[in-house]
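Action item from last meeting closed. Structure (311 res):
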């Protein structure tokens, strides 16, 4: 699993043509001003990234920065209600998207908020009043989200989340310091687990990461259900019927395989969740779950690294 987390080489590509990244951090923020000693331009007016030094002072995650600590990664699924004991004891707690709001509203421990979503809903709906936390956000989020968080005096650290854009790695290398690019699964929690491994957490617990609906098609810990337009898939695993969405099923398979790669002592699931159920099945079962997702070559990349023990 760790093979999918790469450090991007920041050496300048052979093609020296200037490229504009499709999302850049905020501007006019004192913490992000150009501090490059080589910059002699008094008009270098806070555009980020600075034209004088595109990699200057952009805060990115550092490998093994949290080595030896414990972490709970919280999705916003119904089982989040069962995770108080784990959340209370962890060194760090990450709230993915609206899970950060839920934790803050409950008064539960919240140290970090995490997002990869590039849509405007992140600042227009989800984090209108962003909880007090350290924000771990992908370089591909909407730049207005970055501005919004900084206007609320929130600390931000960046990482990369693969989107499949042309020349994506070149763009990351051109405009940012060395940083990991996460690419597992399709959902926020999957990318959060990859980043947590990169940061060196010794034990990672997943709470509210149901990847499926609770009875009554409840989708979120706050009781909200599914949207009318959602595509639903359902099936039975060891006598239990599961209802979910295609992207959630694919991501649940990936989470199960990440537990195979990392081991149950390092990656744990809280509650009766779809990833936990899938972790007890074999690769053939996983392949049947995702056989309709993309061409065969895309499905092959979901398989765990060679030598990974499987049930």
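Sequence:
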């Amino acid at each position: 699993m760790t093979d999918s987390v790469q450090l991007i080489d920041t050496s300048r590509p052979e093609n020296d043509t200037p490229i504009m990244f499709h999302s850049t951090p905020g501007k006019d923020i004192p913490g992000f001003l150009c501090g490059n000693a080589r910059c002699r331009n008094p008009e270098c007016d806070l555009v980020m990234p600075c034209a004088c030094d595109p990699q200057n002072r952009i805060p990115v995650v550092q490998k093994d920065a949290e080595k030896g600590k414990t972490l709970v990664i919280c999705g916003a699924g119904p089982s989040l209600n069962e995770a108080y004991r784990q959340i209370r004891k962890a060194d760090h707690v990450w709230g993915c998207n609206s899970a950060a709001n839920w934790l803050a509203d409950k008064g539960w421990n919240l140290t970090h908020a995490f997002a990869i979503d590039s849509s405007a809903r992140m600042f227009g709906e989800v984090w209108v009043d962003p909880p007090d936390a350290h924000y771990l956000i992908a370089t591909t989020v909407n730049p207005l989200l970055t501005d919004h968080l900084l206007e609320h005096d929130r600390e931000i650290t960046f990482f990369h989340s693969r989107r499949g854009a042309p020349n994506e790695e070149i763009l990351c290398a051109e405009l940012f310091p060395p940083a990991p690019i996460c690419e597992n699964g399709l959902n926020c929690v999957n990318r959060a687990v990859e980043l947590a491994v990169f940061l060196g957490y010794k034990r990672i617990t997943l709470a509210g990461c149901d990847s499926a609906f609770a009875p009554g098609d409840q989708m979120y810990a706050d009781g909200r259900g599914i949207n009318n337009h959602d595509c639903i898939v359902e099936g039975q695993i060891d006598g239990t019927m599961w209802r979910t969405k295609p992207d959630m099923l694919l991501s649940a398979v990936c989470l199960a395989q990440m537990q195979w790669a990392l081991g149950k002592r390092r990656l744990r699931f809280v509650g009766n969740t779809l990833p936990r159920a899938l972790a007890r099945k074999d690769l053939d079962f996983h392949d049947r779950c995702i056989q309709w997702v993309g061409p065969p070559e895309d499905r092959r990349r979901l398989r765990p690294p060679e030598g990974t023990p499987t049930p």
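Note appended to the action item: The radius of gyration is 20 Å.
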